[in-house]
Design brief:
It is built from 16 helices and 2 strands. The model is unreliable at 118-127 and 418-423 (pLDDT under 50). It has helices spanning 2-12, 15-67, 70-76, 110-115, 132-148, 153-157, 161-167, 171-201, 205-230, 236-265, 271-284, 290-300, 316-351, 356-368, 372-399, 405-409; strands spanning 79-82, 102-105.
Length: 423
């Protein structure tokens, strides 16, 4: 223990090293504070939309129930859905920075509503929002390089290398303490603010522990890389230049080129294209024979076959039938879109085994459930909710049943998936 304390005293005398550790801790604390503020803002948005939803629905209920027209209720009522952030989302915002976490949907064709705010595949190896994951991935290696690149070469250049080797009880133990202390303090500079943030956010020990273990592994990887370069016996300046180039190549240049290659192998149609395709199909429904529309709808919902006949002009059951058929028409394109996104995601995950920066960010976003898969899961929950909405309204359309204020109370309500309530 005394040897470790002695090593700490030596490090404490190096003003630049202590300033570097303090700066890293401040940057980590700032990132945690910014993440907590962003998550709090998102929660406030979600909280505000719920009373607004009730007020809007009450206004529509008073108006629509006067005529008892279920079609008006279904057409004009926008139902709020939301995806609450997990407690550890403050540390790795991921898709929540670019994809919608609140979406109001109507019983009309759904795909156009979903794709108006498409889910972009996060460029996991590129700098994004300043959050804790950014500090860990891109800044921690720089500070480790600064603290470790000359740990041994500076002693040799000062003429103390051989003397230290002779005086030390164990030369190996000496360098283990020196490297271990600097690596440990650097890791603590990012870990302590994270722990404080996790406590404030109410995160579970398991989730916070997963973040800490991931960050520790990343710090050890970069420590190993620094030692591999430094063992060649070159000058401190040469070590610093080599390691800086290595950081640039491994965290920015090569991951960027690799991601460009992944995107080229898996081209993804923009969500706006799917929106336009769905709307074209819906608009074409106005000109399609009503009998053909209802026949196609009944093939999906045979329970309404006896009441599917449309006589005269406009009828809500026909209108909502071709709205849903518009979704069905673009379903293959939507499936291809999702498969391409997931293929990119899978290859990005595999890329993480080659480039630690990519792997760490992917892992953190997965743990925090702010990744692409979490966003697609939110969309799937919306699809299930939309299905319940449509099935709720169909008996009113097909049976010409009046829709009164009491019926609004029975309308399906959005409920977040159970996985959103734990961490």
């Amino acid at each position: 223990m005394m040897l470790w304390l002695h090593e700490w005293r030596l490090l404490a005398r190096q003003r630049l090293a202590m300033v570097s550790l303090l700066l890293l801790a401040l940057l980590s604390a700032a990132a945690v504070a910014a993440g907590l503020a962003e998550v709090a803002r998102q929660r406030q948005v979600i909280e505000r939309i719920q009373p607004q939803q009730r007020a809007d629905e009450a206004a529509i209920a008073r108006w629509a129930s006067a005529e008892g027209d279920a079609g008006n209720a279904a057409y004009y009522t926008a139902h709020a859905t939301w995806d609450s952030p997990m407690p550890m989302a403050f540390a790795a915002l991921g898709q929540r920075d670019v994809a919608p976490y609140v979406l109001r949907v109507r019983a009309l064709g759904l795909e156009g509503q979903l794709q108006e705010s498409e889910a972009y595949n996060a460029e996991l190896a590129l700098p994004g929002r300043f959050d804790w994951a950014f500090v860990l991935t891109y800044l921690l290696p720089i500070f480790l390089i600064g603290l470790l690149h000359d740990a041994k070469s500076s002693e040799r250049e000062a003429g103390r290398g051989q003397m230290l080797a002779l005086m030390a009880r164990s030369e190996r133990g000496l360098w283990v303490r020196r490297i271990g202390l600097r690596t440990g303090l650097t890791w603590l500079a990012v870990a302590v603010p994270l722990v404080i943030g996790a406590i404030v956010a109410g995160a579970s020990p398991a989730a916070a522990g997963a973040f800490l273990l991931t960050s520790l592994g990343y710090a050890l990887i970069w420590t190993t890389l620094v030692l591999v370069v430094a063992r060649e016996g070159r000058a401190s300046v040469a070590n610093a230049a080599t390691l800086s180039a290595l950081w640039l190549v491994m965290t920015l240049i090569l991951p960027t080129l690799a991601l460009l290659g992944i995107n080229d192998r898996h081209p993804v149609r923009q969500g706006v294209e799917l929106t336009l395709a769905q709307r074209e199909q819906v608009h074409a429904g106005w000109d399609r024979p009503k009998a053909a529309t209802m026949a196609a709808f009944v093939s999906l919902y045979p329970e309404w076959a006896k009441l599917a006949k449309v006589e005269g002009g406009f009828h809500w059951k026909w209108y909502f039938a071709f709205q849903h058929l518009g979704d069905q028409a673009v379903a293959p394109k939507v499936g291809a879109y999702r498969r391409a996104l997931l293929a990119r995601d899978a290859e990005t995950q595999a890329l993480g085994w080659v480039f630690p920066a990519v792997g760490v960010q992917y892992a953190l976003h997965r743990i925090a459930r702010t990744d692409l898969r979490a966003q697609l899961a939110y969309q799937d929950e919306i699809r299930g909710f939309h299905e319940r909405l449509r099935r709720f309204y169909y008996p009113y359309f097909f049976n010409d049943r009046p829709f009164r204020e009491a019926d609004f109370a029975a309308t399906p309500r959005w409920q977040e998936r159970a996985s959103q309530h734990g961490s």
